[in-house]
Amino acid sequence: MGGSDKVNSFPADKTAKIFVAGHRGLVGSAIVRKLLQIGFTNLILRTHKELDLTRQSDVEAFFAQEKPQFVILSAAKVGGIHANSTYPADFISINLQIQTNVIDASYRNGVKKLLFLGSSCIYPKFAPQPIMEDALLTGPLEPTNEWYAVAKIAGIKMCQAYRLQYDWDAISGMPTNLYGPNDNFHPQNSHVLPALIRRFHEAKVSGANEVVVWGTGSPLREFLHVDDLADAVVFLMEKYSGLGHVNVGSGKEVTIKDLAELVKEVVGFEGELLWDSTKPDGTPRKLMDSSKLAGLGWVPKISLRDGLVDTYKWKLQVLVGFILCKVQELDEMKKRLKEMEEEAAALREMQAKVEKEMGTVQGLLYRCRFRIYGFAASLVAGLVCMFLVSYT
Ligand SMILES: NC(=O)C1=CN([C@@H]2O[C@H](COP(=O)(O)OP(=O)(O)OC[C@H]3O[C@@H](n4cnc5c(N)ncnc54)[C@H](OP(=O)(O)O)[C@@H]3O)[C@@H](O)[C@H]2O)C=CC1
Ligand SMILES: C[C@H]1O[C@H](OP(=O)(O)OP(=O)(O)OC[C@H]2O[C@@H](n3cnc4c(=O)[nH]c(N)nc43)[C@H](O)[C@@H]2O)[C@@H](O)[C@@H](O)C1=O
User: Fold this and answer.
1) Measured between alpha carbons, how far is 11 from 186 in angstroms, rounded to an integer?
2) Whose CA is nearest to atom 1 of ligand 1?
3) Most confident of 3-7, 154-158, 330-334
4) Domain ranges of the chain
5) Does ipTM exceed 0.90?
6) Alpha-carbon gap, residue 72 to 172, rounded angstroms
7) Which residues line ligand 2 (CB under 6 A)?
8) What pTM does this model have?
9) pLDDT digits (tens, 9 = 90+) for 250-285
10) What topology is assigned to 4-179+222-251+287-302 in CATH?
C-alpha cells in the first residue's frame, strides 16, 4: 500500500503539458486565465463537442495520444437546486462517468498529478457548522442534491483509493458556492447568484415593479469568487499532495434574503422582492471550515460585493457584445436588402429595354408583313388582269 504525502509540485517548467477539462465553464475558464497569467504555455483544451468525457474509449485514446503531465478536472454536470432535483439521473450518471474515465485514464497514462473538484454539498445536511473536512459521511445528505453529492463523494474516494493502492498523486478540492464570469445564467437551471443577477437586470430593463425570489430567504450560503478558487487550485497543485480532501471557501456566509438585497443594489433595481415559498430552500446552512487550506498558507482576496460588481460588469459586457453582434447582423441584412433592391431595379430596366426592342421588332415585322401582303395583292391583281386580257 502506498499513499505518501510527498508533494509533486507544479513544475517551474512552464511548458509542462496541463489538461484542463471543462475549460469553457465557470471554473475551467478561470483556471485557464490563471495558468496563462502565471506563464504556462502548453495547455491542452478540448470542448465537450471535441471530446465527450463520458465516452471511455474516446477518453483513453485522447490520453494515450496527448500524454498530459498534469490534469485539472473541472468538467462536470453542474446546476442549481432546481436542476439538481429535476435531473437526478443525469447528475449522478454523467458525473460518475466523467470522473471515472478521466481519473483512471490519467493514472494509466503517467499523469504526475491530478486535482479533482467536488463541492460543499458532499457534507451531511445538518453537519456541525462551520463544516470540517472530517464531517464527510457522518449523516444523511440534503435530498435536493444527493445524487450529485454521491457522485462527488465517489470522486474523492476514487482519488484516495488510487493514492493508497498505486501511490499516485490525486488530490481533491471542495469549493463552496462559486460565481463569476462565464457562469451559467439559465433562468431555471443556474445557481442563485447568476439567476438573481439576470432576473434583477431584466426587471430593471423592462421597468417591472417586482422580482420573484425562490424559497423563504432564510438559508445561509457561503460564496467564493471563481478567480479566488482558481488561485487556490494552483496553490494546491503547487503545495498539497495529501490523502484528505481540502475545503475551499471564503469563510463568510450570507442569508439568501441579504444576498438578494445586495444583488438588487448592485444591479440598480428599485422595485419589490416577492418570495416564492413553493420553491425549495435546500440545505439550511452550508459554511465550510477552510482552516486546513489557510494553514497551508492560502486565503481568499475578493469580497462578495466586489466580486458581484465585477460579475455584473462582465454580464453587461456580454450583453453589449450580443447587441453589437445583432446590430452588425442587422447592418449586413440592410446592406443585402439594398443590393437586392438595386438588382431588382437593374432587372426592371433590362426588362423595359427588352420590351422596347421587342416593340421595334414587332413594328418591323408588321411593316414587312404589310409589304408582303401589298406585293401579293398586286401580284394577284396582275394575274387577274392578264387572265381577263387573254380571254377577251
Ligand atoms: N459552480 C459552482 O458553484 C460550483 C462548482 N463546483 C465544481 O466545479 C467544477 C466546475 O463547475 P462549473 O465550472 O461551475 O460548471 P460549468 O457548467 O460552468 O462547466 C462545466 C464544464 O464541463 C464541461 N462538460 C460537461 N459535460 C461534459 C462532457 N460530457 N464532456 C466534456 N466536457 C463536459 C462543460 O462543457 P459544455 O458547456 O460544452 O457542456 C463545461 O465546460 C465541477 O466539478 C463542479 O462540481 C463546486 C462547487 C460549486
Ligand atoms: C453549489 C451548490 O449549489 C446547489 O445547492 P444550493 O446552494 O442549494 O444552490 P442554489 O444556488 O441553486 O440555491 C441556493 C439558495 O438560493 C435560493 N434561491 C433563491 N432564488 C433562486 C433562484 O432564482 N435560483 C436558484 N437556483 N436558487 C434560488 C434557493 O432556494 C436556495 O435556498 C446544488 O446544486 C449543490 O449541488 C451545489 O454544489
Assistant:
1) 38
2) 178
3) 154-158
4) 4-179+222-251+287-302
5) yes
6) 10
7) 79-82, 84, 119, 121, 145, 148, 177, 190-192, 195-196, 213-215, 219, 221, 256, 279-283
8) 0.87
9) 999 999 999 999 999 999 999 999 999 999 999 999
10) Rossmann fold (3.40.50)
